[in-house]
Specification:
mainly alpha, 176 residues
Amino acid sequence: MMMRKQVLLLLLFLLFILEGTVIPWILPGSWQNMLMPNLVFIVLLFVSIYHNRHTALVLGIIFGMLHDVVFYGAMIGPFSLVMGFSTYIMGFIFRVRRAPMPLMMTVVILGSLLFDSMLYAIYRLFSLTSVTYDWNLLHHILPNLVLHFVFGLIIYVPLRKQLEKVASREKREKAA
């Protein structure tokens, strides 16, 4: 079981590295100002639903802080707060251990919408952005939502199987 958790952490760290190195090369230049793919967040939504929302909260805070420090230096803390809070809330609302694909894709859509909206609200509160929510919704939130949805579809089956194995092993260990 410990090995699977280490593989999960390694996967999250690898996705974090890919977000900053490979993804900007793949995206066309005109899309780079619109899209901020947050692949780590999507995996954390899966962790929140299929494993444990408390684990997703802690990992969201840790990887959110990494995002704040490495990528978005205007303020320290917004990504950490928003990533941890939104993964916890999605795990709290959708307490289904064996969530089917339509439900999980709904979680990805709602989680992505919540994440980007809360991030916009924090930046607006501290006057780091002056654009309206409507403009931000059309130019940032919806394109990110589509990208997150596609990534969620791609990783659904393999990640769900791995997280269900981790959960079943933990359940067996608690019973023993």
